[in-house]
Each structure stands twice: as C-alpha cells, then as structure tokens.
Amino acid sequence: MSQMQTCFPPTTKITASDDVPSITSQTARTLHILPDNIRLPSITPSDLPTLAKTLENLQTTRNSEPVASKYQILVCIHGERDCRCGTKGGRLISSLRAEVDKKGLTHLVDVKGVSHIGGHKYAGNAIVYPTGDWYAHLDDQDASTLLSSVLSNQPLWSKWRGRMGLDKKEQIALYQQSTGTCQPPTQTDQIDVTYLLPDRSTCTLSVPIGKRLMDVGKENEMPSIEGTCGGNLECATCHVIVDPAYEDKLPPVTDEEEDMLEYAIGRTKHSRLSCQIYATPFLNGLRLQIPTMTPRPFPPRGTSIRTYTTKRSYSTQPRDFKSLTREYGPIAVGVYLSLSFLTFCACLTAITAFGIDEAQIKGWFDKFRSMVGFPPSPTPTNPDTEPNTETNDKTYLPTIFQNPTTRQTLTTILLAMAMTKLFLPIKLGITAAITPFVAKKLRNLGFELGTKGGYKSAAVRVKSEVRERTEMVKSGVRDRVRRRDKERD
Q: Beta 38-43 vs 71-76: how paired, if at all?
C-alpha cells in the first residue's frame, strides 16, 4: 500500500479489499481499477512505476482479466481503524450480499469490503461504481434500497455524500437539479441542541449538520467546554453528559475516548466527549448536560428554570464575586477595586460639594435618637459661661484628633467609605458585566492574567496531569506498535 501511494498521484484513491485474488503469491497482487472496471492480475512492487505511467497515459497495454460484474459496491469494514466501520460496515456488507444472492444478481453486482474510504464518523460508508457515488450513514436495513438505486442508476439522495470527479459546485448543482432544492442538506439543514447548564438553566442552539459539538460549545462559551487538545483525544475538557434517549443514535465509544473519559470530572455512565459527536439529522433535539464536580441525575424534559434560545453571554448570568475570581483571577479583583476607588472618590466629592460637616452629622444623629425614643444629646445652656466645654469634651482623644479640621476630614472620609458600601450590589453587577470584556482585551494584548476555568486552581493542575499521563499512555502505545511491527517484519 505504501509503495503504491508513492508511485501514484495523490488524486488516486488506493484501498485494500477482501476480494479473493486469482493468484496466490507473497509479493504479487491483483489490481482492480475503477471506475474503468479493469482487473489486472499478478502485479508486483517492481511493476508499479511502469503501471502508474501506463494509467496516466490511459494506455492499458497489460493483459487484464474479464470482469463480469457491471456494478461494484465497496463498503468500508476497517474495524481495526475504527470500530464504527467494523460494526456498521460488517452488518451492511452482509445484508447487501444476502440481498444480491436473494435477487440472483451475483453476475451483475459485486459487493466488496474495503479497508478505508475516509470519514469513519459517517459509518456505514460505501462507494458505488461506475457512477462514483459516495454514501454515508447506511444501515443494514438500507441494503435493499441501496441495491435498487444502483440498478436504476438513481442515487439514494437521503444517504448521498457526493460523487467522485466533481468539484463542490458541480455536486451542489447536481443535487439541486435532481432533487429540486436550492441547497444540499449538508449545506443548509440544522438541528436543535440544548445544553443543560450547572445553574439549571438551558441554552438551545441551532447547529448545522456535520458540525462538531465541541466547536459549538466553545463558540458559544459553554462552561467547562474548552477542548484543550483541539479534539485529538488527548484530554477530557470537552466532557458532556448525553441524554440517555439519544445514546443509541451516537457512534460507539472508541478505546481512545474511553481512556480519556477516565480523567473526566463528574463522569457518569452517559458521559461522552463532545469532540467525537457530530450533528446529524438523527440528533435533532439532543440535550447535553454540562458536568459538575458532583454528578447529577439527568433531568426529564421541561424541568429547567430559565431557557435561553439565542447565543448567551455568560458575563450577564447570575454569579458571585467568588466565581468571578475563580474564572478570571486578578482581572476580576482589579476591576472590582477600580470600581470601588471610583465610587469612593465620587462619594467624597459629593460630601465635600454639599458641605456636610461634623455639626450637621450631630444634628442628624440627634434627630435619629429622637425618632427611636432616646433623649437628645445634652447641650450647654450658656456657651458664654462655659467656654471650655468643647475643648474639655475632646481631652480623651489623641492630640492629633483634637484639631477640629482633622476631625472633619476623617469624618468626611469615613462617611464616604460608608456610602461606598451602599453601592456594593451595583459594583458586583458592573464587575460581572465588564470583567469578561476586560479579560479578553488584556489576553489579546498578551497579558496572561488568569485562565478561563480557574486561576491557579485545581482544574489547571488536573489538566496538566492529564496531559502528562496522556503523553505517557501514547508513548507506551507507540512503543508497543513499533515492537509489533518489528515482530511482523
């Protein structure tokens, strides 16, 4: 296979099949060329350069075997590459062969299992020749319908992925002309996916068919959906909990995904990595629960408190100062302290401008005492006969505070601080609203002050440990593969 890929141009699709060769040899192979339906026996590695030039010049000078079958259906059954193809492809090819035998079409239709045709996530996959039509999401129940479409030369549009030899625009035009639609379903169809958030609210999004749900979560700032590894099955930071009603509509969990789920926080038996889930028509109405440290039961439909049907900004959701500091670290603290300072300056300016002094405060305090039933503070009856009363009243204070100007300044500052405390709810709301934007601007400028998901928190350490352990596991797997390949050689 590797030698053929070297000799032939990149546009040539090369795959192995389960077809029984006409010649048994350790080096010679039988080559089946499609869509020309030419079968060349006894091809050795030394023949490949010459054969590549021959095919490039469209000259078939070699002796070829007659091919009785007019139609070729290639089904991906490469279970070692991806279990989805091994499971669905195996059932599909068995059903197709049984259908061909049942209708007596073995002389007309040849069904082969092949190693890899691309797009394991679309299993079961099949290519039909000579038309070159690609099909996806085929089940064993589709065998009869697919066979009828092949014999009638009418593509099975509901499972159609495209046609070889045509570019994107030509395929769209073919679909439009054949089905009478303005756009192919892979371009316009969308499904609704609902995220169940930790605060028991929901967020419903319209997701295009074929889009990866991890990317949807990141684009819409879903909490805990980070995809640190980029969807390469190297972490569990895109962990979600799937609605049990949709589990049978998802591809099975691979060994690599199962390994990463071991590190998922709040894992349940319905946990999946959203990087392995793609939007399909069968998943319309899917619900995904954002996991928490303590696993929660999956709620029945209609139990959410708040529902958001548009893209939601998490800077406006209810949160306390503790959650802000966890997510944005010193950025949230800096924003809050800046607002507090500005509020204090505004209160101090207002007190100074209105001329509030110590005597006025005493008068307000006496009125308050009278309102609650206490007698007013005693005052001198004849200030002229007791000129030193005020001075004597302050003898218990330190010398620095006996100055009336100092006392008035301190009183003004303390009053401004007290007034600042009254604005605490407003300051927290403004902090929650503007902190995400400030953090985004600072991070765009290169300031790594805080990390999304927790600043120097346990989550960061867990991610680091997960990466290290993942690298160790991958390194061990690569070593085992190398040893196995050496033993085979």
A: unpaired
